[in-house]
Design brief:
Length: 502
């Protein structure tokens, strides 16, 4: 008895040669294993199994449930005149019973020469075996595509992690839980779209190729437009074009946007990633806080079944959010009171006392942010909004009317990680121009060859008048990591960026 499955398939030069020889034999016999263009199916594996379970008790004597399925052969046990096999399709796996008197002697002989990994079609009726497994009793079986490479003996574990990312197509075949992650990712995006659409937001698309590199701190990818003979840059955000639409009277907009940043890679960062940015006229950052809470509660219930989830062994309650100003957070976790600083010099002295490194010309606001990074972020395990950021590091947020040293901005943190960023959007064109020009000047001081420019067209848009607006941006990939308990961003990207193999 021959027993082959995806965990035992050999991965050797001889196996490759054998499969090529089988392909040549098929050609020589007039059977092209790649010529079939269509195979009609009636069910997928889990649906067929569920149908039989539902109707089994009511089937009359001699009555059958006939099905046609297609998928990948992932195991088989050759036993003389009859064989068992398993086939994996788009939804799951089902057992096949293939007998010589069921499919015919010629077809059965051909089947015995097929390989684990081949794509097949099967027709027959459902039944339950003596061991209780619902299976297909085949009356016909067809080779739909020949697999020329054997599936690997083992395709999981730390030693093969990079190979799994490089060859995601094989990873998806062998590790069903991987596919489940990406099914959930698709569902998460669908739920977010449905939620925003129900709130009256309009999904839009904005340019990916930009004629200037804006002065933000993130680094752009540069390319060249041949016809216009100009440099162009892949976008690092969708914000400025979306807010142009607010100016134009589209008062609730969002974009599911692919973003590109020419920066490092680690378990939380990939050079290309997906964000959702949304903007709503006539609301502020408190409105965005309410939206985040409502959305995350909805997603947790729909994807995980409860607002209390477990991420990497830590219980996270997405139904309970804390709100702290940055000043209060630093006071709570570092024991340092921003309001006790009478000058920038006082702030820098306090930083030195607490061994917090800051620039020699650091302002009070800059020092506050450094204290937050040093003492607070790694304490924010449960969902927390940190709001009211210093104006120094918030070039697009509106100043607080009651304290112009701060802006109406928040970030929210879960498990010591920032998940999103929101503002009451700056709509003063004069203030915006000054902040942009200061930002670009600082970037060019650090790098005289930087191509960074001020987006004066956006300033022009503001000069036509933008209503008070609340804006929010959050990373889809980190959100999917959270809701699927995935440790690395590469686990939630089908094809993460990889260093080329030598």
């Amino acid at each position: 008895m021959a027993n082959e499955n995806i965990n035992q398939a050999p991965n050797s030069t001889s196996e490759l040669a054998v499969r090529r020889e089988k392909l040549n034999s098929l050609y020589e016999s007039g059977n092209n294993p790649f010529e079939i263009t269509k195979y009609e199916t009636t069910h997928e594996a889990p649906d067929a199994i569920a149908l039989y379970e539902e109707r089994e008790a009511s089937l009359a004597e001699g009555e059958t449930i006939n099905v046609r399925l297609a998928g990948r052969l992932v195991s088989r046990r050759i036993m003389g005149k009859a064989s068992f096999a398993h086939m994996l399709d788009g939804k799951g796996k089902i057992q096949l019973y293939i007998a010589r008197d069921g499919v015919g002697e010629e077809v059965y002989a051909a089947f015995k020469k097929w390989d684990v990994g081949d794509i097949i079609g099967v027709e027959g009726h459902l039944f339950r075996t003596r061991t209780g497994e619902i299976s297909v009793h085949a009356t016909g079986i067809t080779l739909l595509a020949k697999s020329l490479l054997p599936l690997p003996e083992k395709f999981h574990g730390l030693t093969n992690l990079e190979q799994r990312y490089r060859q995601r197509y094989v990873d998806l075949i062998v590790n069903p839980e991987v596919k489940d992650t990406f099914v959930k990712r698709s569902r998460i995006l669908s739920l977010i779209r449905s939620y925003l659409d129900s709130k009256g937001y309009l999904e839009v698309d904005t340019p990916i190729l930009l004629p200037i590199e804006i002065g933000a701190s993130a680094r752009s990818f540069k390319t060249h437009h041949n016809t216009l003979d100009i440099p162009m840059y892949l976008r690092i955000e969708t914000e400025l074009y979306l807010k142009r639409l607010i100016v134009g009277g589209m008062h609730k907009v969002y974009e599911v946007g692919r973003i590109f940043r020419n920066e490092g890679m680690d378990p939380k960062h990939n050079p290309e990633f997906t964000t959702i940015e949304l903007y709503e006229a006539f609301t502020d950052y408190y409105g965005m806080m309410d939206l985040v809470e409502e959305l995350y509660k909805l997603l947790a219930k729909e994807i995980c079944g409860d607002t209390k989830i477990t991420y990497q062994g830590i219980e996270i309650d997405l139904g309970n959010w804390e709100r702290l100003t940055m000043v209060d957070a630093v006071k709570k976790y570092a024991g340092v009171d921003y309001h006790a600083w009478q000058s920038d010099e006082d702030a820098r002295a306090d930083a030195k006392k607490h061994h917090v490194e800051v620039p020699a010309d650091a302002t009070k606001g800059t020092v506050l942010v450094e204290f937050f990074d040093a003492f607070v972020e790694d304490k924010l395990i449960q969902p927390t909004f940190i709001y009211d950021y210093p104006v120094e590091n918030s070039p697009l947020a509106k100043r607080k009317p009651t304290d112009p040293a701060f802006t109406e901005r928040f970030e929210y943190f879960i498990n010591c990680t920032e998940y999103g960023n929101a503002f009451s959007e700056l709509n003063d064109p004069i203030d915006q121009r000054e902040r942009f020009e200061n930002q670009v000047a600082k970037k060019k001081a650090e790098d005289p060859d930087s191509p960074a420019e001020v987006d004066y067209d956006y300033v022009t848009a503001l000069e036509y008048g933008m209503p008070p607006t609340g804006g929010l941006g959050f990373g889809v990939d980190r959100l999917v990591m959270l809701l699927t308990d995935s440790a690395s961003i590469r686990d939630v990207l089908l094809f993460p960026t990889m260093k080329p193999e030598t």
